[in-house]
Design brief:
single chain; 165 residues; alpha+beta; Peptide Methionine Sulfoxide Reductase, Chain A; two-stranded antiparallel ribbon; 6 helices; 8 strands; 33% helix; globular
Length: 165
Amino acid sequence: MEKALFGAGCFWGVEDFFLQVPGVKDAVSGYAGGTADNPTYKQVCSDRTGHAEVVEVTFDPAQAPYAALVDLFFRMHNPTQRDRQGPDIGTQYRSVIFTHGEEQARIAHERLEAAKASGRWKAPIVTQIEPAPKFWRAEDYHQRYFQKHGGHCHVSYAEVAAEKA
């Protein structure tokens, strides 16, 4: 098993999306990329800690290669929106890939260039790619939020449906 760390707006939808991808064994909502230790949702939403809402994805690379997950990441949200997704605005909603090691960094940069060259996005892609910092698990009420409460968000589920077909 390997881990990937993605920020693509509100973590509820990102977590729910990746849980539906074949080969993904777990997805956990949390925070990364900021200055406070063990931040709370309230602190992150204050826009003072520098954390992004992220999802830590545990996956089997034989079933879900990292490059495929990165491609899904670029298709499931709008990577041209700086510090926002849909109605959610703030640096905690930034588009970011936190990489674990040189191989993930290489793949993430390659897939970023492929996304730019795809012509799908008319505006420039603003996704940041950075080495993975410490991941802080979000409060329990954020975990599996859509499974517990229903709902939907900015995430494009058509992309995961295409992967399953």
